[in-house]
Amino acid sequence: MTLNEMKTGETGVIFSVGGDGELRCRLLDMGLIPKTKVMIRKIAPLGDPLELFLRGYELTIRLEDARKIEVRISS
Amino acid sequence: MILALAGNQNSGKTTLFNQLTGSNQHAGNFPGVTVDSKIGEIKGHKGIKVVDLPGIYSIRPYSNEEILTRDFLLNENPDGIINIVDATNIERNLYLTLQLLEMNIPMVLALNMMDEVRNNSGTIDINGMSESLGIPVLPISASKNEGIEELVAKITEISEKKRRPKRIDFCKGAMHRCIHAITHLIEDHALIAGISPRFAATKLIENDPAITELLKINDNEKDMVEHSVSEMENELGMDRNAALADMRYAFIEGVCAVTVVKPHESKEHIRSVKIDNILTNKYLAIPVFLCIMLLVFWLTFGLIGAFLSDMFSSLIDGAASAVDVFLADYGLNPIVHSLVIDGVFAGVGSVLGFLPIIVTLFFFLSILEDSGYMARVAFVMDKALRKIGLSGRSFVPMLIGFGCSVPAIMATRTLSSERDRKMTIFLTPFMSCSAKLPIYAVFTAAFFRSHKALVMISLYIFGMLIGIISGLVMSRTKYKGKPVPFVMELPNYRIPSAKSVLLLMWDKARDFLTRAFTVIFFAAIIIWFLQSFDLQFNFVEDSSQSLLSKVGTFIAPVFKPLGFNDWMASTSLITGFIAKETVISTLAVLTGSGTESLGAVLGTIFTVPSAISFLVFTLLYTPCVAAIAAVKRELNSGFRAAVFAFTQCAIAWAVSFIVYNVIRFMI
């Protein structure tokens, strides 16, 4: 499944990061790389973007970008 | 000696810079970029300069901030780098550190917010980390001014002795072979170009076109580089970018595993999550945000700012009348006398009246920014601005535009992308500023007595509408391209440091004053000249004889299609360029009526459709000279500012033309 399909409060492990160019490099640089644990903290009041929790800090990305990140749900 | 200060956003970099330099700082002047960077001399260390590089997370050739950082480190040959990292968020912060190390410049790691780590019973093995990274590591607390002297002593020592990082190698396996093969291949090129070979190799793997060009490698070598990279990609089963990120984070995780004892969850983080339960709550976020902004507006424009502004204005008026009396007694030539009083004092004075408002507004804005709330606003409002190709970050500057375009344009400095910044600057003036309110008030009282509020609100909404349409057009034409990805950190809430807030206020005040006495000063004198002389350059008492009225008469036909072919109307629009309020005072002077009876006189100049057309024109046409001066500063180009002013006028004309004709046919 992809990151945008996860529910609020769920934790998953990144499997792959898609996208290309600048966006992809940004995601990788911010620590969204395979094997990283990510939790969905919250969805913005207007329904987009997402607030993620990873590596001990909060990051926000848009739903359309989250769609490019493959995750596996851990319990 | 020149030192560079580099680090992530929200790592406390600005706070450290302020601690290092005090108020002894000025804007850095780097050709061709509008990125905010400052230079200052370290307090008590004469001759040691430090450059505050923009806050970035990685050295990529994408944003101007990153390019500036890369080019500064490559071309300006700083003697040393102070790399500040947030110790509470160390993994992601060290990512930039590894890239800086590759540049092989003497460097010190400043572990900021160590007090916070310790308070949460976490520890960092300073010596162990220093050993692993091959550079000195010093714990500091920038906000509490702890460890700063030691930091300065260390960085000056290793910079003087040119002690470079002990290791720049963080790779293993296939990546190791790839990087070393390429380093070996291009070493000569890199040394000729004056770039660290290791850094050059990584940049070649990343495909940074600027570095490829600098190295002047031939096609054969290019093929060999590509061959190495694809071999590595095949072996690792990852593409180059993922492989590099993976290598860096793997190394960092290794270092942190043995040197960092993380607290379970820090108090500050728990507090932040709790605050966000309210501030970014599904239902409360937007109402709370609106309340905060209303409060800021009320305090700025209603209470503190207005009070200070009035005080400031009466001070200037007092000074003006004192000078007036003195000059009259002295028997100064009446023309020079008029220049001083009607030109300089009236012109610059009216603009200076803004100063307290700007300073007050930036007081609140810097608190909102430094506390971490602005990032939340961007998070909450992002979707609303997405449609016009902007991100949530642009929301606050535009909102400030309803108060005054000048601080709004100055506030775009916090936007991280130049494209977003330009677009936001362009759209901000469509948010009707408070100085236009008197114009609306007089006109609505004269023409729409029974629908005053409705007409005023319609004007505000109409301005926003034109802004949205302009944004849509811009994001589909000139600013097409891909918007900058919205990947933003939401830092922990922190209490802003008083020093940073005060320095920012001072900075903005100084910025505004510089403009008040340059661009605005000259504009005021030109308007005074036009107002005071006739075609034969005789000094005139009756302003209807002045050059200005001749210019007004000359350009009046331009407004004929808009319904007001009248020299007084066009003249008032010209003086409105100094400050929007003067549109009304000019009309009052030219019609020979007081401000009170102006309403009745306006009926003889305007019809209802042409009054609406005039209001729409004042709503949309070029913002005042102070705002244009701010645009010039932020876009770093007088030409662009002039194009900006002209475009706004053209849009205003076209829209007023349509509105006038539509209304004429409706009535």
List the main descriptive attributes of the protein structure presented here.
heterodimer; A: 75 residues; alpha+beta; SH3 type barrels; five-stranded antiparallel sheet; 2 helices; B: 667 residues; mainly alpha; Rossmann fold; Helix Hairpins; 3 domains; seven-stranded mixed sheet; two-stranded antiparallel ribbon; 30 helices; 64% helix; elongated
SSE layout and pairing:
The complex is a heterodimer of chains A (75) and B (667).
Chain A: E1 11-17, H1 21-29, E2 37-43, E3 50-54, E4 57-61, H2 63-66, E5 69-73
Antiparallel strand pairs in A: 1-2, 1-5, 2-3, 3-4
Chain B: E1 2-7, H1 13-21, E2 25-27, E3 38-41, E4 49-52, H2 64-75, E5 80-86, H3 90-101, E6 107-112, H4 114-119, E7 123-124, H5 126-133, E8 137-139, H6 148-160, H7 173-193, H8 197-206, H9 209-215, H10 219-236, H11 240-259, E9 260-261, H12 267-279, H13 285-330, H14 334-352, H15 355-371, H16 373-386, H17 395-400, H18 405-411, H19 418-427, H20 437-447, H21 452-476, E10 488-490, H22 498-516, H23 519-532, H24 547-555, H25 567-575, H26 582-591, H27 598-605, H28 608-620, H29 625-635, H30 638-666
Parallel strand pairs in B: 1-4, 1-5, 5-6, 6-8
Antiparallel strand pairs in B: 2-3, 3-4, 7-9
Helix pairs in contact in B: 3-11, 5-11, 7-8, 7-10, 13-14, 13-15, 14-23, 15-22, 18-29, 20-21, 20-27, 20-28, 21-28, 23-24, 24-25, 25-26, 28-30, 29-30
Explained architecture:
The complex is a heterodimer of chains A (75) and B (667). By secondary structure, chain A is α+β, with helices and mostly antiparallel strands. Chain A has helices spanning 21-29, 63-66, and strands at 11-17, 37-43, 50-54, 57-61, 69-73. Chain A has a five-stranded antiparallel beta sheet. The mean pLDDT of chain A is 93. By secondary structure, chain B is mostly helical. Chain B has three domains: 2-160, P-loop containing nucleotide triphosphate hydrolases (Rossmann fold); 173-261, Helix Hairpins, CATH 1.10.287; 265-667, no CATH class. Chain B has 30 helices and ten strands. The interface between A and B is large, with 34 and 43 residues.
